[in-house]
Amino acid sequence: MRSTTFQPVSFSLFDYRTYLFSFVFIIGNLVLPQICHLIPDGGKMLLPIYFFTLIASYKFGLRIGLLTAILSPLCNCLLFGMPSLIVLPILLIKSSLLAVIAAKIAQYSNKVSFIHLAVTIVAYQLVGGIAEYFITGSLQSAIQDFTIGFPGMLIQILGGWFILKKLAKYEC
């Protein structure tokens, strides 16, 4: 499949749209994990907490991406107890890595394609997995997103591509 020309959008921290779009993506990252947790091990398998962070960062840049990446896991932890406090730092690291990597790839490529999204997903998972290994000392935990979470990574790539391709038509 071909790549689509894509123009990422970036709002300043003083623009109300930064907080409006962040709020919308955070709500998505609150609702989607609740739905996925209805499936046994749905969170570990589908990695829903990262989905809207990917969309936010790729389309709307680093500011909205980081707000979504940091506030989504914190709100989920406070409201629903998931992620647990034990894994919260790892989710914050991975989510923040995703925001930075997605925003930079979108900014430099001005394209959305399966390859761009796959590189984004693999990059944040690799670096995040290394961080997780150093934090936990567990190789099994560090590679869990590549083993159990592989369907979620595919959903991020395919679903992210579909949504971002649709968003490419709109300028905010």
Helix and strand topology:
Blueprint: E1 4-5, H1 16-36, H2 42-46, H3 51-80, H4 88-109, E2 111-112, H5 114-136, H6 139-147, H7 150-167
Antiparallel strand pairs: 1-2
Q: Could you describe the 3D structure shown?
A:
- 74% of the residues lie in helices and 2% in strands.
- With 172 residues, the chain is mostly helical.
- It has a single domain (4-167), classed as Arp2/3 complex 21 kDa subunit ARPC3 (Orthogonal Bundle), CATH 1.10.1760.
- It has a two-stranded antiparallel ribbon.
- Helix 3 (51-80) crosses helix 7 (150-167) and helix 5 runs antiparallel to helix 6.
- The longest helix is centred in the middle third of the chain and has 30 residues, at 51-80.
- The mean pLDDT is 96.
Question: Would you kindly provide a brief summary of this structure?
Answer:
By secondary structure, this protein is mainly alpha-helical.
List descriptors.
mainly alpha; Arp2/3 complex 21 kDa subunit ARPC3; two-stranded antiparallel sheet; 7 helices; 2 strands; 2% strand
